[in-house]
Amino acid sequence: MNPLNLPAGALCVLIGPPGSGKSTLAARYPDTWRLCLDFYRGLATDSEADQSATPVAAEIQALLLDARLSRGLNTLVDSTNVLPHIRAGLIARARYWQRPIAAVLFDVPLATAEQQNARRSRVVPRHVVRELHQMLPTVDQLRAEGFGTVHLASEIPATADAPR
Ligand SMILES: Nc1ncnc2c1ncn2[C@@H]1O[C@H](COP(=O)(O)OP(=O)(O)O)[C@@H](O)[C@H]1O
Ligand SMILES: [Mg+2]
To answer: Which fold has domain 11-155?
Structure first.
């Protein structure tokens, strides 16, 4: 159950707009590997959409990130991660702990992200999906930022029980 062949202790950053399939991929790994801002916003406010809880969610994520990386535990960051400075912060922690750094780029067409967003439990406004989709980096950009391995979500083998 390791569709990305992640090495031990790796940080894996999922990068994609809402509806691109990040959480679906993360669900193929143990729950404890997954850090998710949506989930922590929900824990803080009973609403995953409540952006006022983003700072506290980011603090929780940062604490868990260091807790896991320091122990050499695999960690998946299941948030949009389309902003370069957010990725830089994650890369810095993995470098500090000397862990392998991987990315999965959810290179889905905008129309697919929009359709799949409409099927999510929490539907994100369309303009937000569009804006975040436009901010998607390229594979070359991700390599230049310091990701040792970059996977394209479109190339990850599907399984019988998971679409991707
Ligand atoms: N490869 C895929 N093919 C078809 N449907 C998918 C695929 N990946 C995800 N989905 C569906 O799209 C919706 C959004 O996926 P999700 O993983 O929640 O996206 P994200 O976490 O990036 O917002 C879900 O209903 C999910 O079942
Ligand atoms: Mg998700």
So the answer is: Rossmann fold (3.40.50)
